[in-house]
Amino acid sequence: MSSLWPRIEPLLARVEKPARYIGMERGAAAPAHRPGDASWLLVYPDTYEVGLPNQGLQILYEILNERDDAAAERTYAPWIDLEAELRRHAVPLFSVETHRPAGDFDVIAFNLSAELVYTNVLNCLDLAGVPVRSERRAPDAPLVVAGGHCAYNPEPMADFVDAFVIGDGEEAVGEMTDVIGAWKRAGRTTREGVLRELATIPGVYVPAMYDVDYDGPFIREVRPRFAEVPAQVDKRTVADLAEWPYPKQQLVPLVEVVHDRLNVEIFRGCTRGCRFCQAGMITRPVRERPEEQVRTMVQDGLRRTGYDEVALTSLSSADFSGVDGLVADLVNEQEGSGCVSLSLPSLRVDAFTVGIASEIQKVRRTGLTFAPEGGTWRVRQVLNKLITEDDLYAAVDGAYSQGWRRVKLYFLAGVPTEMDEDTRGIAELARNVVAIGRKYTKQASCTASVGGFVPKPHTPFQWFGQNSVDELERKIGLLRGAVRKSGVQLRWHDPAATFVEGIASRGDRRVGRVIERVWREGGTFQEWSERFELGRWLDAMAAEGLDADWYVTRHRTADEVLPWDHISAGLHRDFLWQDWQAALHEHGLPDCRWTPCYDCGVCTDYALEHVVASPVAPAGGSQGTGQDLSRGGDTPVEFLGVREKASSSAR
Amino acid sequence: MRGDVGFPVRVRFTKRGKVRFISHRDVARAFERAFRIEQLPLAFTQGFAPRPKVSFGLALSVGHESDAEYLDVQLVDEVPLDSLAQRISDALPAGIDVTGTVALAERAPALQESVTAVAYRVTVTGPDDEPVGVDQLGAAVGRALAQPALPVTRTRKGHEVTEDLRSIVRTMAVTDADELGPVLDLELSTQPRGTRPAEVLAAVDGDLVDRRVLRTKQLIERGGARLEPLEADARSRVPEARAS
Prior knowledge:
The complex is a heterodimer of chains A (651) and B (244).
Chain A (H helix, E strand, L loop, with lengths): L4 H8 L25 E7 L3 H4 L3 H12 L3 E7 L3 H9 L18 E5 L6 H11 L14 E5 L15 E3 L6 H14 L5 H8 L5 E2 L4 E6 L2 E7 L8 E2 L27 E4 L1 E2 L9 H5 L4 E2 L2 H15 L3 E5 L9 H12 L6 E3 L7 H10 L6 E7 L3 H7 L5 H13 L4 E8 L6 H19 L6 E8 L16 H15 L4 E5 L2 H12 L4 H10 L13 H10 L4 H5 L14 E2 L4 H12 L17 H5 L45
Parallel strand pairs in A: 1-2, 1-3, 3-4, 4-5, 9-19, 10-13, 13-14, 15-16, 16-17, 17-18
Antiparallel strand pairs in A: 5-6, 7-8, 11-12
Helix pairs in contact in A: 5-17, 11-13, 13-14, 14-15, 15-16, 17-18
Chain B lengths: L6 E9 L8 H14 L16 E3 L8 E11 L5 H10 L7 E6 L7 H4 L2 E9 L8 H13 L4 E6 L2 E6 L4 E10 L2 E9 L7 H8 L4 E14 L2 E3 L1 H4 L12
Parallel strand pairs in B: 3-10
Antiparallel strand pairs in B: 1-3, 1-4, 2-3, 5-9, 5-10, 6-7, 8-9, 10-11
């Protein structure tokens, strides 16, 4: 197969960061592309630095390349400078391993981790020479696939993606390879035929196999077109993480990327039950990796990669059974063997956490991050983020007294039932944190980082109407006033970007035309603040005759058909509705790992169980979790300044 | 490396092919990882954020290739040098190959200070790969060298500054041609300051492009001798194995 390298190479002299496009990572595959193989191009539709570390993509890359009937390569969204050069010289999008044209692959598969990258998906397809709309694709055009957390509401991208994978992809990619390989070897008979067959694989959603009926602005029904196509697509879940010790060969990039370290996933799923957290809701049940396997993956990974930092990743890493022993052992093992540092990117807010943190950060205690999310106990009960003020202050006191100087707190603004006193509570908590710190050091500081809340599909808050841009701006104004001259640094996410995230995550199939229009007007890299423009989106909504507020700020009712109702994360709609009602009554729900089952539906319907080594809740007592993925991939709780590092290049 | 005890090693390596697009800093990080992968007995700096003691020579521009890059690494114990080049190369990306290692004399001056000249082979084209004739380039080079000065104007901190490169350019001659155009051999001083091949070309003729650049040599000039950095400060003899 022809490599585009001779045509790409002269263009790289003219672009910023040319190393984004050369591949060559340690661990990268050099696939042979035998004639009958199903070839996959895995795409993270953002810059290389943001996309390369994505563990989901790396896991599937390895699994596919281990098969003897598949070959997988990767690519990332070319930055605007290279895009201009590619278009000017009529060079298509290419893979980074062998610089093969994207259009030569059988499958182009996108990771959708954040909604604001949707226009980049269209741009990548267009650069590949593939029609952006599924219906326009020729029979031999690549199949366009997408997965990742955003696939749980596939509808806004339904016009562009041939098949979505809902949930864990480890098993589904193999089953898809079987179907696609057979189709290819049979001479690619009909596109409709292969799509129909893909639609029968559990967890695979083929939008073209469904008709959507509307009743005015509302959806009346989403109906499968054929008898063998399921009316509801259930997510895929791997039951036992121990069977999937991936990535075995984590890619080591040559350029600095975000999360530039060895990452070992210690468990998947979370049952803390934070009602705003889509990641926690859709990844149930909890599946811990055996501790021995974690140790092996850490040791082998460090030896193979040469990294000097390892992160134990999950949605709430301090909840891993026996985490204290594991951390102590890893720290001791690494001592004297060349300064390896350890981080746990998502931690609860409590003294136990500070204990673990001090175990890890023996010397350089600069910054520690907690995510109380809500400003008052009342609103934290609504969020089901059951951290008392005592928990927080004890944790913060512990941190400052043991030498930390900076505390960062993450909050959400615009959550259900929020009153101005709750918003002001954010400032009050932060001011009290500074006061605690000042007991120990004059340098004590606190950063309050405030994100606008987007009510995500498949959460108890999916019926809630998001705050408008004006309302979020008003709340930020309140906070700015309340922290003045207090030693609190306030940071906030752009409310306009939060609004557009609402359109893209809560929309239906009609929103696809808006995404296409924004892309055609040049709106790529919308998650980059310097490239984002609210006006483009509002204009496109108006041009398509759609009411942005109807989609974003309107409260939805119990009987409304939601655009994602035919996709199931296993959570019963009744459970979500009851939990929504409980939220409105300020009623918290403890973690079901250590309390009786609430019958959310996941374990019972899928015949799965939590895989948890410890029958009792971890020490510490707090119910808080540390992570909020509604901010699109941020890892809010992280030890800052473990090691002097160049600022990461993204965001 | 000054004053360190232990086992300082000087390493020569290449940067060829696709990997030429990574930065000097990326090369440094790749070596640090390679040293860890090979579990070399690295010496670390003191303090809160210990770093391995590695020092690099002159930075190479992103996109330029080289057959003559150098670094010094401080080890705490002796390691067998005959297998070291291969071990490190195996842990490095393709295109970065270690082509020589030498035990360094104690108190050897740093590469940055001791290298005084570098040589390049530059394939020259016009804008957008427009070909330039060998004779045409030869004539332009001849004219430039005949002038008493080689002025080049550049913008520094918002000001236009004109500098004379004549004293930096030691030799400049068209010696060859490849499929893209004539090849210019350049030797440039690096002290008290150096310059990049692109600036030399700009001084010769504003339309010339350094389409392909290969650094072929770095030289340490000391007491009238021109020394390759591996020779310049090698430990005169690796100390005999401890008395058995």
